[in-house]
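Sample pair:
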Amino acid sequence: MTDARAADTGAARERSATRVDAHHHVWDLAIRDQPWTADIEPLRRSFTFDELRPQLSRAGIDATVLVQTISVAEETPELLALAAACPEIRGVVGWVDLSAQDVSARLDELRSLPGGEHLVGIRHQVQGEADPQWLLRRDVTSGLRAVAAAGLVYDLLVTEAQLPAAVEAVRRHPDLRFVLDHGGKPLIAAGEVEPWRSNVTALSEQPNVTVKLSGLLTEASADWTVDDIRPYVDHLVEAFGPTRTMFGSDWPVSTLRGGYEDVVAVTEELMAQLSPDERSAVFATTALSSYQLERASA
């Protein structure tokens, strides 16, 4: 998408009081390596919030949710401290070892740190786990119960093949609010719809789960078009409804397929058929409610 097209789309958007990017990252390779980027040369550099901030402004995004990138305990306190220093960052989805016996204590400790009031959720890179039933393990089940007891959200980062276990995990934890990252990672580049479609439908039938329209461009081929992505986005919005669907950029991973403003503009184009209130839900109120961002920023 050209910059001109993105600008035209942005100029025509209806603005809500707050527009939220519910999923982005930052990292500094001088502080900590990101081994998952080893073979992704464009991502083998530091990406800071100072770099993102002007792009948020140009795209009309007012608030963000900062999400962990690596399963190490040291990262989350750094993200919380950054949130404390940056008013645009309303919430942090951090990491704890869900298999540990003291998850509750670790969550309490994170909340006691500078910026700890911004902790809104927990995530683990389940997509990297060899066990397709990892979410259903007894120790992980105990960890998820601790997340629920703490009033936090759990972000589901799973592959398409792990969706059945995600469905069962959501059913087992009706008191825990779940957010499905990246729309469950459909195989867009391959043009495959099933079994992703059926599994996502089953997940959407559980009232305690919402979904992010994030990371979908990077599931498409390098020469993607909006029409490549549209069937997957349409199904997600139809299955979950706008009030359980939220926008996330997945910056800077999204830079593999386009600029920040392009990602926002593509999502706006795909949401054009919705009513103004429904678009406001996707770009604001679903994230504000799901992550309780107003309370986190108080």
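Residues 3-297 form a domain with the TIM Barrel fold (CATH 3.20.20.140).
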